[in-house]
Amino acid sequence: MSAPACLYCVGTEFDPLHEGVRDRLGHVPGKRRFLRCRACGAGLLDPLPAEAELPGFYPPVYSFTTEHAGGLKSLLAKIEHRVFFGPQYREQVRRVLDACGRSPRGRRLLDVGCGKGMRLTELKRAGFRVTGLDFQPEAVRYVHETLHVEAEIGGTDDLPKLFPPESFDVVTAFYLLEHVRDVRRVLADCFAALKPGGWFLGAVPLADSIQAKLFGKRWIHVTEAPRHLSLPTRKGLRIAAEAAGYEAIHFRPDAMLNAAGPAASSIVSGATLTHVYGGGKWLAIAKRLLGGALTFAALPLCHLEHAACDRMSHGILCARKPGGDHAAA
Fold first, then answer.
1. What CATH number should be reported for the domain holding residue 280?
2. Number of structural domains in the chain
3. Interatomic CA distance for residues 18 and 216, integer angstroms
């Protein structure tokens, strides 16, 4: 079967990358493969599933939340938030503030693919006027009713319908682009939603990293297929962002904990939110605890790949819409 164009550089020549990939969550049966774009190195799931299929690939428990009905799972979630997710979200907020280069007070921020909104609360606490967007109705209900944060139900294709042009000072997308069929359209729609001089920040796993090469087919972002439709590279992302009209394009490393966690999960299969909080069997909880220990053990590797080798495994694409007040990044 012939492959479509690369989602990033629109190249049409591919090489095999990973064969026989299974869903790490066990939610979607079957095997899949990734191809590698010869032009930019990005990975592409082949064949790409239809848009209508995508919502069914997500299990009921996919995003992190501390709200569980008591017992061991509730305690574990609170511990995880304190030692892993909370510090990670706060560090990501610092990355956003550093990239934007201005006070967040009163500035409007849209988080596309907000999930259960835990990061949104940290962005709100920092001073942004926040809005979330997610295609899962239960996630948006949680954001509204529990976190009391503004959010809309919709996929990435609904962004132009829900928000007028030039509505936001900042648009963020944490680990979203690898999930969408039309990366260039999403970048263009986010560009349209930004005010002149506004910033887009998109956190992504990077297929041109040490971690991706080290783990190969076991890398968590490979085994997230068919939810992950692509495996981006910095070259491919830069080409796509330039095509959408952005300037001042650069990359910053994501929070170290968010790079170390996927390394641990690539080693310990079954240490997932879905396995623990969706089923909660003792073996899954034990694997989750082991994965937590390995996360901290993996931090030196992540520092090495980010700082010493400039081969970050989890980076944030930072790109500005021309015009407006060009504060230094």
1. 3.40.50.150
2. 1
3. 8
Residues 4, 198: contact at Cβ < 8 Å?
Answer: no
Say if 270 falls within a structural domain: yes
pTM given for the model: 0.93
Collapsing DSSP to helix, strand or coil, 213 comes out as: helix
- Tokens at 318, concatenated: 């930072």
Token representation of residue 183: 């990366």
Q: What percent of the chain has pLDDT over 70?
A: 96
Indicate the burial class of 46 (C-beta count within 10 angstroms; 0-12, 13-18, 19 or more).
Answer: middle
Range of the domain at 74: 54-223+232-320
- Judge contact between 259 and 307, C-beta under 8 A: no
- 222 near 21, Cβ under 8 Å? yes
Domain-embedded: residue 17: no
- The average confidence (pLDDT) of the chain is 91
Task: Let me know if residue 127 belongs to a domain.
Answer: yes
* 265 located within any domain: yes
Query: 223-269, pLDDT tens digit by residue?
Result: 999 999 999 999 999 999 999 999 999 999 999 999 999 999 999 98
